Amino acid sequence: MNAVDTSAAPGLGPVLRRLYLARFGFALVWAVLLFLTASDLGPVSSTLLVIYPLFDVAAAVIDARSSRATGSPAVLYVNIAVSTLAGVGLVFAVTSGIPAVLRVWGAWAVVSGLVQLIVGIGRRHLNGQWPMIISGTISMLAGASFVLRAGGEGASLTNLAVYALLGGVFFLVSALRLGRKARHR
To answer: 38: closest CA among 164, 157, 153?
Structure first.
C-alpha cells in the first residue's frame, strides 16, 4: 500500500525531517516530565497524559498537509481521529485511575502504531522510513502489553515514559536519515 508518493514532491523529505526532530524533542521533554511525576495521577501527570495524543494530532495535521500534494493522506486522517479520541478518552481515564489510563493509552498505541507502520511502508523509498516501520510495529506490541498489564499488580505510568522516549529516538533516527539523503542529492 503506497500511502504517499513522495517522488512527486521532493520537498516532503525536509518537512518530515523538521517534523520528526520536533517530535523527538517533544517526546524527550514529555518522557522526563512524566517519569518525574509518574508515581500518581496528579494534575501534572494527568495533563501530560492528555497532551501527548493531542500533540500527535498536531503532528499528523502537519504531515497530512505536507503529504496532500504527493498522494492521499487518508491514513493520516485516521490517525488524527484516533489520536483526538485518545485525548478525550484520557481526560476521562485519568479520573478513573492508572489501569484505565493504560487501557486507553494501549488501545491508542496499537491503532496509531498500525497507522505509522502503513505510512512508513508507503514511504519506504524515502531514506528515513525503516525506523518508522519498526517504531510502528513496536508501538502496536507495546500498546497490547499496556492493555494486558492494566489490571495487574503494580500498573505504572513509568512504562509510558519509556514508550514515548523510545518513539522519540526512532523519530530522531528517521530525521537524521532523511537529512543525510537530502544532503547527498
So the answer is: 157
HEC letters along 142-160: HHHHHHHHCCCCCCCCHHH
Confidence band for 179, pLDDT divided at 50, 70 and 90: low
Amino acid at 89: G
Provide the percentage of residues in the chain whose pLDDT is more than 90.
65
**Cα 183 to Cα 172: distance, rounded to the nearest angstrom:** 17
Query: 10 Å Cβ neighbour count for 135?
Result: 23
φ, ψ (nearest 5 deg) of residue 141: -65, -45
Binning pLDDT at 50, 70 and 90, where does residue 166 land? very high
Phi, psi angles (nearest 5°) of residue 115? -60, -45
Cα distances (Å, whole numbers) of residue 34 to 45, 47, 81, 98, 164: 6, 10, 24, 13, 10
Cell, residue 70: 504527493
CA distance 123 to 134: 13
Give the residue carrying C-alpha cell 523519530: 171
pLDDT attached to residue 180: 61
Q: Please state, for a pLDDT cut of 70, what percent of the chain lies above it.
A: 89
